[in-house]
Amino acid sequence: MDNRAIGVFDSGVGGLTVLRSLIEHFPQESFIYAGDTARVPYGNKTAATLQEYAAQCTRFLTRKNVKLIVVACNSLSATAMDTIANIAEVPVVGVINPAARKALLESPAGHIGIIATRATVRSRAYDTALRSIAGSESLHILSHACPLFVPLAEEGFVQHPATELIANTYLSPFRDVQTDTLILGCTHFPILREVIAKLLPDVNLIESGGAAADEVQQILASKAAFSDLEKSIINVYLSDITPSFKAIANRILGIQPNKVEKVTFS
After folding, report:
1. 3-state helix, strand, coil in the chain (%, to 5)
2. Domain CATH code at residue 73
3. What does the pLDDT profile of the chain (266 residues) look like in tens digits?
4. Domain-located, residue 1
5. Which of these, 38, 98, 125, 261, has the minimum number of CB atoms within 10 Å of its CB?
6. Residues 111 and 186 in one domain
7. Are residues 66 and 141 in the same domain?
8. Annotated active-site positions, please?
9. How far apart are alpha carbons 188 and 103 in whole angstroms?
10. Angstrom distance (rounded) from CA 171 to CA 113
């Protein structure tokens, strides 16, 4: 048994959707969540900047003595996994490969769409992962950057008319090519799942949280590193505690963290 916490980090509140899946899968585990809310969004940053931010967050979690790190950020999973792996002294799980595998399993015809930040789309990480995993299987892949989804999610604009208007513009290309499966390639995007599902009612929506949890399960099982705590502890560390954070966290997690503290990642 290993009662150390699992570390999770993201640019802002989007990674809470991954944390929610992990809590559901592992109710006896403790978690440390690091959200770099002062510097969100990450999706418009250069690869060099993202790698520096990733190094800072990884060092922070390493100092907290976590037993595993989940990179709950597609932009970092696309651009900084080598940086993170070189610093972390524990296993590291990203979100791109798990989500790609799940999309291939659920896509009936191989018509797969990806919505993500500009950094993730520019990296072509999902395209590469999908084609690598699929092998010779024929795929039709369309990727589209949706940068405004991140601030809308951060502000909690889930039911706002402006969100549906912007989403309709972003999602229209996927209707034109008969996409059957859509990867929500940013952990903020599941916060807007309801409006996305409304505009693409016949499309399978793939979230990375559940897919990443399956990989965490395999790692913990292989190392016999599950916790035997009677009750988990969830501590949240943010580089800026925004006015909307508490409401968004309650809506996503459905529970109150044990601690929410402002810190500097360095």
Report:
1. 45, 15, 35
2. 3.40.50.1860
3. 999 999 999 988 889 999 999 999 999 999 999 999 999 888 889 999 999 999 999 999 999 999 999 999 988 998 999 999 999 999 999 999 999 999 999 999 999 999 998 988 999 999 999 999 999 789 999 999 999 998 998 888 888 999 999 999 999 999 989 999 999 999 889 989 999 999 999 999 999 888 899 999 999 999 999 999 888 899 999 999 988 888 888 888 988 899 999 999 98
4. no
5. 261
6. yes
7. no
8. 73, 186
9. 18
10. 10
